[in-house]
Amino acid sequence: MHNINHLQLQSTQRYDEFDPQQEGNKNVTFIDFVIDGQSLYTMLKQYDRIPALGWGGEEYQKQILDYLLLEQMHPDLYYRYPLLVCPWCGDEECGFISVLIEKEADLIVWRDFKLEPDNRTIPIGPFYFEWEQYNKLMSKNR
Predict the structure, then answer these.
(1) Cβ neighbours of residue 69 under 8 Å, at least 6 residues apart?
(2) Alpha-helix residue ranges (DSSP H) falling in the chain
(3) pLDDT digits (tens, 9 = 90+) for 17-46
(4) Most buried one in 17, 49, 94, 129, CB count within 10 A?
């Protein structure tokens, strides 16, 4: 049996107003994945990527939600999906952090985080979420 993780979504910004690193950088508002009370963005901040959810165009957001809900397979990565992307443009060409997302019975699993395009493993996860709660949470953002 797996430990079930608790997922929340929280609107946040790349920098707070007093952060000296904000100078010369793009301050983006996005939706962060908070897992067991910890920000995924903060856990992976060293890679200079932000969550793909909550910013960018409407069609892009629909695609990200389709990926997260396993309603659409990524054209190049199949069951791996871009979870954190370039904070300047969101383009996968700039590099991103991908995750393997699988549905196992009544669970959704995020595992095997990688820094792309280097295919470098990031030692975090796996995370197990109850499908019903996960589906409701993601669907609220449609």
Answers:
(1) 135, 138, 139
(2) 40-43, 58-68, 131-139
(3) 555 555 556 667 899 999 999 999 999 999
(4) 49
